[in-house]
């Protein structure tokens, strides 16, 4: 599940990129895109970790005797 901090960082990056686009500031636009992409990557890594943990728990539970 997406972390709230990552979601905030993505929104902030998108806003910064949009402001850079609107003002013609290429540096701000690039920084915003970078921040947004980094937040998306962090989300992807966290989601993959959550899925892996779920799979590991499933395997562990399959071998647990009642």
Automatic annotation (TrEMBL):
It comes from the Bacteria. Residues 1-44 are annotated as: Disordered. InterPro entries: CsbD (IPR008462), YjbJ_sf (IPR036629). Signal peptide: none annotated. Residues 24-34 have a biased composition (Basic and acidic residues). Coiled coil: none annotated. Residues 4-53 form the CsbD-like domain. Belongs to the UPF0337 (CsbD) family. This is CsbD family protein. It comes from Micrococcus lylae.
